[in-house]
Design a protein that fits this description.
The complex is a heterodimer of chains A (about 350) and B (about 250). By secondary structure, chain A is mostly helical. Chain A is about 75% helix and about 0% strand. Chain A has a two-stranded antiparallel ribbon. In chain B, the strands form three sheets. Chain B has a six-stranded mixed sheet, sandwiched between helices. A four-stranded antiparallel sheet of chain B has the order 2-1-4-5, covered by helices on one side. The chains are: A mainly alpha (about 350), B alpha/beta (about 250).
């Protein structure tokens, strides 16, 4: 009787998740035909093989872009979810430990240094993102006051500030007509440069990171408890936290090295997913991944179709994400929750 | 059978502060042991050592060195009821109680129907089964303590470590917790709890270990060691143990 209620809930969550996956698939297919060629809006082509230009655009421009949007949405929200559980704080995302600022600094450095090839930007952004994480972690170990979480928060703030000031210096010396524009666009985020080469260069690692996080979907609940409690139920919290921090950071930095900074996805999608699936991360984590993918796919499609000029995706995610955040907080306030 | 055995346990913090010095005691299976002492006496450190959270040689659990236990194996033998817990996500009471099933699951597994049934039973045992689908963020302080107990009960371990189990509770909830602990004692569980409340120690425990500044002052049945002289020495203030009918009052 008792487990049947639990089973019913699990079944309900599975159905919602499958429904979201189905919507994602349908929209991905439909959005292949959305764009500004041959005219603005949706254009369905009956016989693609006869229209080589359209075929080329769909296969080599829109399809990799849609795949990148899905992949980026999934990993950014999965990483956000992971950070929130690991730090037992629903207001945390990878930027929390200076990862985003470190990656932005790394990308800007390569752009200004003149070797702004995409692979160099990827490598540099990933390197500095990880360096920021490592530095935050190292500093937190060195601090001699407060709990582990507080020390991490403070060291994350300090490292973010250092990379932000470094980024400011780079922008100050950047050549204004080219490099500064590139840096500015990178910081606003966008998928307009996506191509198959970029997809293939990150897909193995990002999918690996997603799979590792997914495999921890129930254990993440336990890692949100006090470290000693997690230990007492048979976990090795230090090892598990280190693995998850690493894969979440690597997945995030690799993705934003291609897409530029895309904020709010990792903060908002886990919240929405918990609203829909409940707080048990066994259902809420995969839900967050699919919702993140849907959100970024929608934002990117709006960004590339609504206006004659493309709207950077980072601006859209910030605007929509902040709006949702305000609504969530207002609702929570009305419900009387802290 | 001895459930816990400690031989010449000492512990010094990385800062150089000595927390425990040469502690030796044996705890029989099914006994309820109070670790009694003032603040800073080393009670929590001793619990951490028993849990394996802090490391020290010389501790045996069911005649097997603690250090030779695997993580999950240890989780199946010993459960922890902390003083408080992080409640930053709105888990249901059932979700939270199910966390106690983790030592029985595979590395990346999740709870089965059998685990759900066991978790419901644990919630029933602490009187929270009807709130199973409620959010833990809506619980009162007393209900939180009961929930911590239900997770430990769902863990189905032979030894329970309880850190100040009634320190933040009103009299009604204190009674509830004590009844549950008495019931666990009847089930032959070994209960080890820290407290600075001598009345609670006397009421609940079969044995008392008194700790003072990291040293074991005495260990024995409560009737043997909870005396006016020992308590006065332990707390360095005048304490009196008196009997009123069948009750013993310490003040």
């Amino acid at each position: 009787m008792n487990s049947s209620i639990y089973k019913q809930e699990q079944k309900r969550n599975r159905i919602i998740l499958l429904l979201l996956c189905f919507i994602l698939l349908v929209l991905s297919f439909l959005f292949l035909f959305a764009g500004r060629y041959p005219k603005g809006g949706f254009t369905f082509v009956k016989n693609l093989s006869e229209n080589s230009m359209m075929k080329n655009i769909i296969v080599n421009v829109r399809l990799p872009r849609i795949l990148l949007a899905i992949m980026a949405g999934a990993i950014l929200s999965a990483a956000g979810f992971t950070f929130q559980m690991l730090f037992s704080n629903p207001l945390v995302e990878p930027g929390f430990l200076g990862v985003s600022q470190g990656a932005a600094f790394g990308a800007a450095l390569v752009i200004v240094a003149g070797s702004g090839s995409s692979i160099m930007i990827q490598l540099s952004a990933s390197f500095f993102g990880l360096l920021a994480l490592g530095s935050s972690y190292f500093l937190a170990k060195k601090f001699r006051f407060g709990g582990w979480l507080l020390r991490l928060v403070l060291s994350g703030i300090a490292i973010s500030a250092i990379f932000s000031s470094g980024l400011g210096v780079i922008k100050l010396v950047a050549e204004p007509t080219k490099d500064l524009q590139d840096i500015t666009f990178w910081m606003m985020g966008g998928l307009w440069n996506s191509n198959w080469n970029q997809i293939f260069s990150i897909i193995p690692v990002v999918v690996f990171c997603l799979l590792v996080i997914y495999s921890y979907r129930w254990k993440l609940n336990l890692l949100s408890l006090q470290e000693k409690t997690a230990y007492s139920v048979g976990l090795n919290p230090k090892r598990d936290r280190t693995i998850l921090l690493l894969v979440a950071t690597i997945g995030t930095t690799l993705t934003i090295s291609i897409t530029g900074l895309i904020g709010w996805v990792g903060l908002i999608m886990p919240h929405l997913s918990r609203k829909l699936f409940g707080s048990d991360s066994k259902a809420a984590l995969p839900g967050s991944m699919v919702m993140g993918a849907l959100f970024l796919l929608l934002c990117d499609t709006i960004g590339r179709t609504v206006l004659a000029t493309e709207i950077p995706i980072g601006l859209l995610t910030s605007f929509i994400g902040a709006t949702i955040f305000i609504i969530i907080l207002s609702l929570r306030h009305q419900e009387g929750k802290a | 059978m001895r459930s816990v055995q400690m031989e010449h346990i000492s512990y010094t913090y990385p800062t150089g502060t000595k927390a425990l010095h040469d502690i030796s005691l044996e705890i029989e299976e099914g006994s309820t042991v109070a670790l009694l002492g003032a603040n800073g006496a080393g009670k929590s450190t001793l619990m951490d050592l028993l849990l394996g959270w802090k490391h020290s040689q010389g501790i045996k659990l069911f005649d097997k060195p603690l250090s030779s236990y695997g993580r999950k194996e240890l989780g199946r033998c010993m459960a922890l009821v902390p003083q408080s817990e992080n409640y930053n996500f709105s888990f249901t009471l059932l979700d939270y109680t199910l966390f106690g099933r983790a030592p029985y699951l595979s590395e990346m597994g999740s709870p089965t129907e059998n685990d759900v049934d066991i978790a419901y039973e644990a919630l029933k045992e602490v009187g929270l089964a009807s709130y199973a689908k409620r959010s833990i963020t809506s619980l009162s302080g007393g209900e939180h303590q009961l929930l911590l107990l239900s997770r430990a009960i769902a863990q189905q371990s032979k030894v329970l470590l309880l850190d100040e189990p009634t320190s933040a509770l009103d009299p009604a909830n204190r009674q509830k917790v004590m009844k549950i602990l008495e019931h666990l004692h009847e089930q032959k569980k070994t209960l080890i709890f820290t407290t600075h409340d001598a009345n609670l120690a006397y009421e609940l425990a079969t044995h008392v270990a008194m700790l003072k500044q990291g040293n074991l002052l005495c260990f024995g049945t409560k009737e043997e060691v909870v005396t006016t002289e020992m308590l006065t020495t332990l707390y360095e203030t005048k304490m009196t143990v008196c009997s009123i009918g069948e009750k013993t009052l310490i003040y």
